Amino acid sequence: MSDRKIRANGGGGRTTPPLPAPGDLVVDVSLDRVGEFRGVWCGLWFLRPVTGGLRWTVAPTDTRPATPGERLHAETARRNARSRGTLL
Questions:
Q1: Which terminus of the chain, N or C, has fewer Cβ atoms within 10 Å?
Q2: What angle is formed at CA 23 by the lines to CA 85 and CA 48, rounded to 5 degrees?
Q3: How confident is the model over 11-49, as pLDDT tens digits?
Q4: Angle (CA) 21 24 30, round 5°
Q5: Distances (CA, A) of 67 to 32, 59, 74
Q6: How far apart are CA 44 and CA 47, in angstroms?
């Protein structure tokens, strides 16, 4: 038997981040895209575009918290979309 330990996250070297609250902004690093956390289903996280649109799923290990600059950019985009009437 091998002495090698198997990591709980599949051996990818990344740890699972803590569960965000609904509405928190996180970055999908696989797509380099900021999304609003909506919930969990079968171990995947649902994210929604900040300016509206179709949600997508991402593995928790492929996410990180949004930086203050990314949050500011996302909030500005959301407010601009709302003022254009493309976000209700």
A1: N
A2: 60
A3: 455 778 899 999 999 999 999 999 999 999 999 999 999
A4: 110
A5: 13, 19, 10
A6: 10
